[in-house]
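retry 2 of 3: previous attempt timed out while embedding adenosine-5'-triphosphate. Reduced batch size to 1 and resubmitted. Inputs unchanged:
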Amino acid sequence: MSETILQLKDASIYQGENLVLSNVNVEINKGEFVYLIGKTGTGKSSFMKTLYGDLPLNEGEGFIVDYDLKTLKEKDIPFLRRKLGVIFQDFKLLIDRTVNDNLLFVLKATGWKDKDKMTAKVEEVLTKVGMKTKGFKFPHELSGGEQQRVAIARALLNDPELILADEPTGNLDPQTSVEVMKVLQEINKNGNTILMATHDYALLLKYPSKTLKCDENQVYEVVQRKG
Ligand SMILES: Nc1ncnc2c1ncn2[C@@H]1O[C@H](COP(=O)(O)OP(=O)(O)OP(=O)(O)O)[C@@H](O)[C@H]1O
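retry 2 succeeded.
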């Protein structure tokens, strides 16, 4: 039987007083790669933010990696985020330290203590994204695509049950986007569940997968045409 990683039932998503999405019914199972598409302003980021606890869920039901979004407390959020790997359009790397130190910083902040294990973990995740030899570099010494690979490596540090990627290729040229996408596909093949918001239809066509669309305050699954 497939394991449910995310389930929203009749959920409404708000930005303050404004209703962004209503009657959201979405289920994501372990191992799936799911796109979230929709025009600008239709609520993709708000949807993602609700999932990682940046926006509260006040209406409907929402369960994500064993957390109930409806009863989520402020103090639970860091623990929820440890089970999620979040990737943003603008990478969000710390610019004042090397790639290795960016990753070690996250491990320390999430309670890792053993130096050897930390070094081994950093090497493991950098290897997964093809950046093993670049750990000594500072973010500004890397291309956009390389910085995004590091951000993906960072998202993998605590073996997340679900990766939420909000427009991860939004700042990259088409060729680099495909390279980053290949990394995400590889990670998915190795068992990680991924939800990726994007407006890059070229990627969707090249790597077809289950697709959810935000439109007119609704989220629904779209069937991709073949050929
Ligand atoms: N901080 C905020 N406060 C109030 N309203 C907001 C806020 N952020 C977004 N909104 C509104 O919520 C709606 C959905 O925005 P959201 O950013 O989720 O869309 P999106 O689909 O991710 O767009 P984009 O592709 O441009 O990132 C929009 O009408 C937007 O104006």
